[in-house]
Amino acid sequence: MTRVLVVDDEPQIVRALVINLRARGYEVDAAHDGASALELAAARHPDVVLLDLGLPDMDGTQVIRGLRGWTKIPVIVLSARHASDEKVEALDAGADDYVTKPFGMDELLARLRAAVRRGAPVGSEPDEAVVSTDTFTVDLVAKRVQREGADVRLTPTEWHLLEVLVRNAGRLVSQKQLLQEVWGPAYGTETNYLRVYMAQLRRKLEADPANPRYFITEPGMGYRFEQRLPGVGSGTLRS
């Protein structure tokens, strides 16, 4: 399911958006100020953000810049500001679209769908987003992991860590990048987090966690996911 983060300090607008989005099958989180929005984005990893510019603690453009420091998720601005220079400022800060209040729900939903399509990672179609090893499979669309035919229960943080590594299969992902993508832009040096959660992933997915085949540590640098199939040196996303 597509997860939407709604950021607005007007309760009526938030309520209307939440009701309409959930009725159409979206998962929705809501924040009423910029600080909460940045925290929720880091914790929940939405697929798209609907953002009001006039927030009580900071301007919406600051929220956009905060998001752009670590993620490329689509941001659609919802604002009563009509001046072209304010629209340009928001777009230059990294917004993907700008909808002026009041707006029609049908138009907003169409723009939301378009933003999600543009923001979808390459290879995210259901028949192309299953990564297989000889021990477990990862379905990036369904957000499901199976080991030897049985579902593996992962915490949200474990899943986000796994997802980043799998999407960068074969490539070294630095400690800082992992911390900022999984825990948020305020994190960059808490390497103990990575050690703890990597150990948990290995216990759940590796046949021999003490001698991992798939989740490789590059000491002092980061981690790498090596996809290995029987008789294959390194795998690719299968269709």
Q: How would you summarize what this structure contains?
A:
With 239 residues, the chain is α/β, with parallel strands linked by helices. It has helices at residues 11-23, 34-44, 60-68, 84-93, 105-119, 156-167, 175-182, 191-205; strands spanning 3-7, 27-31, 48-52, 75-79, 97-100, 130-132, 136-139, 144-147, 150-151, 173-174, 215-218, 222-225.
Description:
The structure is a single chain. The protein is α/β, with parallel strands linked by helices. The protein has two domains: 3-119, Response regulator (Rossmann fold), CATH 3.40.50.2300; 126-225, Winged helix-like DNA-binding domain superfamily/Winged helix DNA-binding domain (Arc Repressor Mutant, subunit A), CATH 1.10.10.10. 39% of the residues lie in helices and 20% in strands. It is built from eight helices and twelve strands. The strands form three sheets. Strands 2-1-3-4-5 form a five-stranded parallel β-sheet, with helices on both faces. This is Response regulator. Residues 128-227 form the OmpR/PhoB-type domain. The modification 4-aspartylphosphate is found at residue 52. Residues 128-227 bind DNA.
CATH topology of the largest domain: Rossmann fold
End-to-end distance: 21 Å
Domain module tally: 2
- Could you give the count of β-strands? 12
CATH superfamily of the largest domain: Response regulator
Spatial sequence of strands, sheet with the most strands: 2-1-3-4-5
Assembly status: single chain
| Structural class designation | alpha/beta
How would you state the average pLDDT, rounded? 84
Helix proportion range: 25-40%
Helix-strand string:
EHEHEHEHEHEEEEHEHHEE
Shape: elongated
Radius of gyration based on Cα positions: 20 Å
The description of the largest β-sheet is: 5 strands, parallel
How many individual helices?
A: 8
Bin the strand percentage. 15-25%
CATH architecture of the largest domain: 3-Layer(aba) Sandwich
Low-confidence stretches: 122-128, 229-239
What is the CATH level 1 assignment of the largest domain? Answer: Alpha Beta
